[in-house]
Structures are given as C-alpha cells and as structure tokens.
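Please fill in the sequence for the structure shown.

STRUCTURE ENCODING:
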C-alpha cells in the first residue's frame, strides 16, 4: 500500500509542502516547451530602434531633472523648500537610474537587439555609467538564471539552511547577549536589516559575492572585479572581459572625481551619490512574484516588477513584450500563477526581512528537496522542533546540558 493511501486509510492526511503562511504548495506540472509554445513568436523579437528610444528617453529624463534641479533649486528662497526639492530629486533620479540599469540588464540577456556586439557595447556603457562591471555581472547573472532557487547551485539570494542558521545564530560562537539575538523580532532590528540589505547589499555582492553559496565569498578571489588567473568566479577565457569591465568602472569613477573638482563633493553627493544609493535599493527589491508598483514600474522600471516571473522563465524576452508574454502563460501555469497585487512592495520587503530566517523541508517531506521559509519567533507555520543536536548547539556559551534537559526541549520549538 502506498504511503499516502496508508495514511488516508488510518485517518491521517498525507504530507504536503506547506509554505510559511500555511498554504499547500504543489510542484509545477507544466513544461518549458508549453511555456515557449504559449508565448506569441513576436514577443521573442527585440527591436534595436525601440530599445535605443528607451535609452534616449531615460537619459533625457535624467538630464532634464539634473539641469532643472541645478539651475532652479538654489534660487528658492527657503532652505526647507530647497532641502525638500533636493530630497525629491534624489528619489526621482534614483528611479530613473534604476530604469537605465534595467536597460543594461536587457543587454546582458540579449534582449536589447539581435546583435550580440551591439548588446554588449550598449550594456557596457550603460552599466559602467552606474559603476557596474558589465561583463562580470553578465556572466554571473547568467548562472543565477540557470539555477534560480537551487540551494546548491544558485549564485545569489541563497537562503540560509536551517542547520546553518541555527549554528550561526545559536551556536557556541554566537553571543547570547547581543541586541540582535535578544530582539530578533523587534522592528528596529528588521529596519536595520532592511537598510543594510537595500543600500549596501548590491555593492557588497559585487565586491565579495555576498549572499551567494556559503564558502564562496570573500575578496578578492570571489570579487566581480578580480581578473587574476586565480579568480573563483570566472574562467580563463572570461578574464579579459572582467578587466574591460573594471576599466569601464574606473573610467566612470574618474569622471566622478572630475565632477567633484568642478562642482564640489556636496553637489556630486546630491546629484549622483544619493541617487546611486536609491538605485541600490530598487535593484535589491527585485520581485520573485508578480506585484503591482503602478506607474513607477510600468514607466520608469520598464515593468521589471510586474513581469519578473516570466523574465525568469524566458529571460531573452524584451521588457516591452514581457506583459503580453505574462498574460500568455497564465493558462499554462494555471494554479501555479501567483500574484500579489494588494500588498505594498515595501510592506512585502519588510515582512520578508522579518519572517524569512531560514529554509527547511515541511514535516513528513524530508528528503523531497523542496524547502520552505521558516522562523523561530513564532510567525507563520512553526518550524520542526529542534533536534537533540540542534538543542545542544542552541545552548550558547555554556556547558552542554544534561540529557534530561535536551529531552525536555524536544517537546517544543525554541522561539526567540
């Protein structure tokens, strides 16, 4: 008798994959051939003129905004009004720069034009202007697309396993008196994680491969800027492209230094530095579920939020065809089509930073290879009880507990 039939016969429900919010998750049953067949053929065809038009448009937006702010804001009579206008400028400029970043991202996927040379040329200049090593990131990003969501092969946004999280946060090397451990669920801690992740996660990823596989991080060998033969990220045939990318970033850095000499560091900080931080924020909030961010997404972000899932299914589709492709695959995906049009994007970011601590398999599904997010502070579906070994690890900074103490802990999970 099959296990599921046996459980039903005994009056128990068969085991299921359960997500953090208690929803039953069925594994996708569609094929990539069905996805490709459902998408109209013209959606796969990039237009060079259309892509260039968006580049010109975005730089016109940015140039007009910079010029207007530089000329008119200083003559405003109130310092408070000037401060407000400069603040609004940094937010808007950061959004426009994010759109330019996305156009360069299109180049890396071959969705800018039919010419690989034109794609790489445009992508190099667009990304270099934003201090991004174009070829270096293009190469590692392609690996990410080939292994998205694979805990062993993905190259970025790799979640902590249950075992790693317990050892790292509750092990003997952890300090039980630190504010972070004592207030993991406190809003100030969530805010801290959001700020660090959104503003500095991107440059740290480029610098030392932050958020990748454990043991595959560290400067210089895991850096996107390292072009030595001992690079851990790139093949020997790719090192010349890495060097070229570095030269592009250095050239842009030199231009920024010239700007400091010509206009002063404060002006450059306002006109480029702070918008650059906003850029880091927006690309760090990339969605993995269909969300609605209104005009900002559809116009400035080139619909990357609202069509990000189909982008991961077929990354060569130009962004201006992605919405049509998204609608086309709905029937194929069926119940596996997931969208959250109600939750504010920032609220979703906050919730994920707070609640998604580590991943583990659902009870009864051990060995399935399918992992769901869990946390130890009581939000959502409870994780499995700490095993004896994990309970021993959780006794931070003290002698191993007696066997009776360990047994008592197995009756309930530990929440902090």
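FILLED IN BY: designer on duty
SEQUENCE:
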């Amino acid at each position: 008798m099959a296990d599921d039939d046996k459980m039903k016969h005994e009056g128990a429900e068969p085991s299921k994959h359960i997500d953090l919010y208690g929803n039953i998750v069925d594994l996708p049953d569609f094929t990539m051939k069905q996805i490709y067949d459902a998408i109209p053929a013209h959606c796969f065809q990039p237009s060079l003129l259309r892509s260039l038009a968006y580049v010109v448009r975005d730089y016109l937006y940015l140039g007009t905004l910079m010029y207007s702010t530089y000329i008119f804001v200083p003559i405003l009579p109130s310092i408070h009004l000037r401060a407000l206008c400069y603040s609004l400028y940094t937010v808007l400029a950061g959004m426009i720069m994010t759109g330019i970043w996305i156009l360069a991202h299109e180049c890396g996927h071959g969705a800018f034009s039919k010419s690989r040379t034109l794609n790489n040329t445009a992508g190099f200049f667009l990304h270099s202007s934003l201090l991004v090593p174009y070829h270096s990131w293009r190469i590692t990003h392609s690996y990410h697309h080939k292994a998205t969501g694979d805990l062993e092969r993905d190259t970025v946004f790799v979640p902590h396993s249950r075992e790693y999280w317990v050892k790292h946060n509750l092990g003997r090397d952890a300090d039980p008196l630190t504010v972070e451990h004592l207030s993991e669920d406190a809003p100030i801690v969530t805010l801290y994680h959001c700020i660090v992740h959104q503003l500095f996660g991107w440059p740290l990823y480029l610098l030392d491969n932050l958020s990748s596989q454990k043991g595959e991080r560290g400067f210089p060998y895991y850096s996107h800027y390292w072009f030595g033969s001992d690079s851990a990220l790139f093949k020997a045939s790719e090192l010349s492209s890495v060097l070229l990318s570095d030269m592009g970033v250095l050239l842009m850095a030199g231009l920024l230094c010239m700007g400091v000499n010509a206009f002063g560091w404060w002006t450059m900080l306002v006109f480029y530095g702070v918008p650059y931080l906003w850029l880091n924020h927006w690309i760090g909030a990339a969605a993995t579920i269909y969300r609605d961010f209104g005009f900002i997404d559809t116009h400035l972000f080139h619909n990357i939020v609202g069509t990000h899932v189909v982008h991961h299914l077929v990354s060569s589709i130009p962004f201006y065809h992605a919405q049509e492709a998204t609608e086309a695959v709905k029937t194929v995906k069926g119940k596996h089509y997931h969208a959250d049009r109600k939750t504010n994007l920032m609220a979703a970011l906050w919730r994920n930073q707070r609640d998604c601590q580590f991943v583990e398999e659902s009870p009864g599904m051990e060995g399935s290879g399918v992992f769901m997010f869990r946390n130890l502070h009581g939000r959502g579906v409870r994780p499995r009880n700490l095993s004896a070994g994990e309970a021993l690890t959780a006794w931070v900074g003290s002698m191993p507990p007696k066997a009776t103490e360990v047994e008592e802990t197995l009756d309930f999970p530990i929440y902090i």
